[in-house]
Amino acid sequence: MSTIKFRYRLDKTAKIITFTTLGIIASAIVGGTSMSGGSGSITGTLLGAFVIQTLTSGLEFLDVPFYYKFIVQGAVIVIAVYIDIKRKEIAARRNS
Asked: How many domains would you assign to the chain?
Protein backbone atom coordinates (compact mmCIF):
# COMPACT_ATOMS: atom_id res chain seq x y z
CA MET A 1 0.00 0.00 0.00
CA SER A 2 2.79 2.41 0.82
CA THR A 3 4.38 1.70 -2.59
CA ILE A 4 1.19 2.71 -4.36
CA LYS A 5 0.97 5.87 -2.27
CA PHE A 6 4.62 6.70 -2.96
CA ARG A 7 4.16 6.10 -6.69
CA TYR A 8 1.12 8.42 -6.73
CA ARG A 9 3.04 11.14 -4.92
CA LEU A 10 6.01 10.71 -7.25
CA ASP A 11 3.81 11.02 -10.34
CA LYS A 12 2.09 14.08 -8.94
CA THR A 13 5.43 15.70 -8.08
CA ALA A 14 6.79 15.03 -11.57
CA LYS A 15 3.73 16.68 -13.12
CA ILE A 16 4.08 19.70 -10.85
CA ILE A 17 7.78 20.09 -11.67
CA THR A 18 7.13 19.80 -15.41
CA PHE A 19 4.21 22.23 -15.26
CA THR A 20 6.27 24.68 -13.21
CA THR A 21 9.19 24.50 -15.64
CA LEU A 22 6.90 25.11 -18.60
CA GLY A 23 5.31 28.00 -16.70
CA ILE A 24 8.68 29.59 -16.04
CA ILE A 25 9.70 29.33 -19.69
CA ALA A 26 6.32 30.64 -20.82
CA SER A 27 6.56 33.56 -18.39
CA ALA A 28 9.91 34.65 -19.77
CA ILE A 29 8.81 34.32 -23.39
CA VAL A 30 5.47 36.06 -22.90
CA GLY A 31 7.29 38.78 -20.98
CA GLY A 32 9.30 39.65 -24.07
CA THR A 33 12.49 37.64 -23.72
CA SER A 34 13.64 36.79 -27.21
CA MET A 35 14.17 33.13 -28.05
CA SER A 36 17.15 34.13 -30.18
CA GLY A 37 18.74 35.84 -27.16
CA GLY A 38 19.95 39.30 -26.40
CA SER A 39 16.82 41.01 -25.13
CA GLY A 40 14.42 40.89 -22.22
CA SER A 41 13.72 42.63 -18.96
CA ILE A 42 12.80 41.75 -15.41
CA THR A 43 9.66 43.85 -15.63
CA GLY A 44 8.56 42.05 -18.78
CA THR A 45 9.23 38.66 -17.24
CA LEU A 46 7.21 39.59 -14.14
CA LEU A 47 4.38 40.75 -16.39
CA GLY A 48 4.64 37.48 -18.32
CA ALA A 49 4.51 35.54 -15.05
CA PHE A 50 1.37 37.45 -14.09
CA VAL A 51 -0.27 36.63 -17.43
CA ILE A 52 0.68 32.93 -17.26
CA GLN A 53 -0.45 32.64 -13.63
CA THR A 54 -3.76 34.33 -14.42
CA LEU A 55 -4.26 31.94 -17.33
CA THR A 56 -3.36 28.93 -15.16
CA SER A 57 -5.65 30.06 -12.34
CA GLY A 58 -8.50 30.53 -14.80
CA LEU A 59 -7.99 27.03 -16.16
CA GLU A 60 -7.90 25.66 -12.60
CA PHE A 61 -11.11 27.53 -11.79
CA LEU A 62 -12.78 26.03 -14.85
CA ASP A 63 -11.56 22.58 -13.75
CA VAL A 64 -9.77 21.95 -17.04
CA PRO A 65 -7.92 18.61 -17.18
CA PHE A 66 -4.19 18.75 -16.49
CA TYR A 67 -2.99 17.90 -20.00
CA TYR A 68 -5.03 20.69 -21.58
CA LYS A 69 -3.10 23.18 -19.46
CA PHE A 70 0.09 22.02 -21.18
CA ILE A 71 -1.56 22.51 -24.55
CA VAL A 72 -2.72 26.02 -23.67
CA GLN A 73 0.69 27.04 -22.32
CA GLY A 74 2.37 25.58 -25.40
CA ALA A 75 0.02 27.55 -27.63
CA VAL A 76 0.80 30.73 -25.69
CA ILE A 77 4.54 30.09 -26.18
CA VAL A 78 4.09 29.51 -29.92
CA ILE A 79 2.04 32.70 -30.29
CA ALA A 80 4.60 34.73 -28.30
CA VAL A 81 7.49 33.41 -30.42
CA TYR A 82 5.54 34.17 -33.61
CA ILE A 83 4.91 37.73 -32.44
CA ASP A 84 8.61 38.11 -31.55
CA ILE A 85 9.67 36.91 -35.01
CA LYS A 86 7.24 39.25 -36.78
CA ARG A 87 8.33 42.15 -34.58
CA LYS A 88 11.96 41.55 -35.54
CA GLU A 89 11.07 41.32 -39.23
CA ILE A 90 9.26 44.66 -39.06
CA ALA A 91 12.20 46.25 -37.24
CA ALA A 92 14.62 44.88 -39.85
CA ARG A 93 12.49 46.36 -42.68
CA ARG A 94 12.45 49.75 -41.00
CA ASN A 95 16.24 49.75 -40.62
CA SER A 96 16.76 48.80 -44.28
From this structure: 1
